[in-house]
């Protein structure tokens, strides 16, 4: 049974799975909450399949510095590390 992580995490099981796989607390919470809210587009979840503009928006939301000068491949790598 998944531990209750409070009201800030909407899908505790997914959150724990992501943390176990090495995601940061912030990233795990963001993904778990997006999935619980139904805002994850399962057709374009692979970062490589997304447009550079989509990656730039996500990088901006995450707060990745230097994103405006990054290539698409660099954005994918930076988002994965965040």
Question: Secondary structure elements and their pairing?
Answer:
Layout: H1 12-20, H2 25-37, H3 52-62, H4 72-81
Could you explain how this protein is built, in words?
The protein is built from four helices and no strands. The protein is an all-alpha fold. It folds into two domains: 29 residues, no CATH class; 38 residues, no CATH class. α1 runs antiparallel to α2 and α3 packs parallel to α4. The longest helix is centred in the middle third of the chain and has 13 residues. The model has no long low-confidence stretch (mean pLDDT 82).
| Percentage of residues in strands | under 5%
Instruction: List low-pLDDT spans.
Output: none
C-alpha Rg (nearest Å): 14 Å
Query: What is the number of beta strands?
Result: 0
Order of helix and strand elements from N to C terminus:
HHHH
Average pLDDT, all residues? 82
Overall tally of domains? 2
What would you call the structural class?
mainly alpha
SS summary, helix count: 4
Helix proportion: 40-55%
Q: What is the CA–CA distance across the termini?
A: 27 Å
- Main beta sheet: strand number and arrangement? none
- Silhouette: elongated
Pfam families: DUF7218, Rho_N
InterPro entries: DUF7218, Rho-like_N, Rho_N_sf
Protein name: Rho termination factor-like N-terminal domain-containing protein
